[in-house]
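Tip: read the tokens left to right.
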């Protein structure tokens, strides 16, 4: 708590000294940390549709993680207050085409942000209330999978792609969706591994983490291939800006740390079955989210002070990380020890589950 307060005062001082650099760094930290409850919401809905052991054992983690959405919404307020410092389309919409000029008016930008969080918080509450009711779980998860995913895609375009109003990628919303999904998956698995309650064999969770990493890599590769083949100046410059001033090394680290190393490591059966290895890969994945967030955001914002940005990145990361961690621990502490036996939810498949669990234990 003391460290969070100190980091908060550092951020306040940063806004007084250099608001532009501070809000850019704060947005990087917020995107990285805020993706945890948003991605956990996607996984929460998936667990209701794919009925397996993880639906039950990770349910307290999903409830606590999605319960952070109101806090994440509140911590986005500084971005809304200083949005004209980093979003050119909002600061000066006169030079944009008519549709973009109306789309990026300040009041409409704020209204869409409020709508996103209101919908996600409502979906999370709906999912929590549907627990132990088979039909209600399917109904909530099916609706949320459509509405929630669409809103996450739009949010990625609003919060990140609009930093460069001249750039357009039809797949950018899906890239932000994969960003949140990877973050939420890594956090949920890590929280489950660190909890005193056993969550089952690590092999299945390793496969889940590998699947979302492959999706993340595929979407980034598709955007690059499409832009490279089209060779459109306004789109190519997005990659050129991230291929100089040291960002090329950050891209190399991201590629190695987020895809090459985890992919090669999880080819080993020993690594996939070892919970310590799985926990280390989850921590690495969460760390890579901060780097990817910086790559996506900072090159798009011009006129930043490197020193102020670096200090505010650390302060913003510490402040948001500790606030969310404390809130998550409080939510887990308030959660009941057991939400009911799993047999009471899906009695028809009880025998099949017991047989599968016995086989996994052997």
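Filled-in amino acids:
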């Amino acid at each position: 708590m003391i460290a969070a307060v100190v980091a908060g005062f550092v951020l306040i001082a940063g806004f007084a000294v250099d608001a532009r650099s501070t809000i850019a760094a704060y947005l990087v930290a917020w995107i990285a940390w805020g993706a945890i409850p948003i991605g956990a919401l996607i996984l929460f809905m998936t667990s209701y549709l794919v009925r397996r052991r993880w639906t039950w054992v990770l349910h307290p983690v999903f409830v606590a993680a999605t319960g952070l959405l109101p806090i994440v919404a509140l911590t986005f307020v500084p971005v809304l207050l200083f949005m004209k410092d980093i979003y050119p389309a909002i600061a000066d919409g006169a030079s944009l085409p008519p549709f973009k000029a109306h789309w990026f008016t300040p009041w409409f930008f704020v209204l869409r942000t409020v709508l996103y969080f209101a919908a996600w918080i409502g979906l999370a509450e709906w999912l929590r209330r549907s627990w132990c009711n088979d039909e209600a779980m399917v109904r909530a998860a099916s609706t949320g999978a459509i509405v929630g995913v669409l809103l996450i895609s739009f949010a990625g375009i609003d919060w990140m792609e609009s930093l460069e109003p001249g750039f357009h990628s039809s797949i950018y919303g899906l890239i932000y969706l994969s960003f949140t999904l990877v973050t939420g998956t890594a956090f949920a698995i890590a929280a489950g591994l660190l909890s005193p309650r056993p969550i089952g064999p690590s092999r299945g969770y390793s496969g889940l983490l590998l699947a979302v990493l492959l999706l993340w890599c595929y979407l980034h590769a598709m955007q690059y291939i499409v832009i490279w083949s089209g060779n459109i100046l306004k789109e190519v410059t997005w990659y050129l800006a991230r291929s100089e001033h040291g960002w090329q090394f950050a891209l190399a680290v991201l590629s190695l740390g987020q895809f090459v190393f985890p992919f090669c490591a999880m080819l080993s059966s020993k690594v996939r079955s070892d919970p310590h290895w799985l926990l280390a890969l989850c921590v690495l994945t969460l760390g890579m989210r901060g780097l990817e967030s910086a790559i996506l955001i900072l090159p798009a914002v011009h006129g930043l002070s490197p020193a102020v940005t670096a200090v505010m990145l650390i302060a913003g990361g510490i402040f948001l990380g500790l606030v969310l961690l404390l809130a998550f621990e409080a939510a887990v502490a308030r959660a009941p020890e057991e939400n009911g036996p799993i047999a009471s939810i899906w009695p028809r498949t009880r025998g099949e589950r017991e047989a599968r669990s016995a086989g996994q234990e052997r």
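Confidence is low (pLDDT under 50) at residues 337-357. The chain has 19 helices and no strands.
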